[in-house]
Specification:
With 124 residues, the protein is an alpha+beta fold. Helix content is 19%, strand content 43%. The two termini are 18 Å apart.
Length: 124
Amino acid sequence: MIFKFRHTNINVRNLEASIEFYQKALNLTVSREKTADDGSFKLVYLTDPDGAYEVELTWLRDHADRAYDLGENEWHICFGVDDYEAAYSHHKAMDCIIFENTKMGLYFIVDPDGYWIEITPKRD
């Protein structure tokens, strides 16, 4: 089973300021955006000049006035897997899946320190 680093997700309270910061601090540019029809969340993806690295900024309306965390972490790392079903079975057997969303094709595993890691199918 091969795991490949895909992107970093950062949950933010002030989306516009965060976009500006990552553009300036890391020389990233906005590559795409996704906003929920009901306005409950907005995702902004930024990439480096070579398109090799991606940062996903997540803003959630329900958490706009307080810190948002996933298992007491402000961000998580996403890995793409070559064989999603095999990875899912492997992690299910380890009993380390902390959240799953089969409709979206992703799940989170948690390490011993409580750090969340997102697993998705590897995509081009």
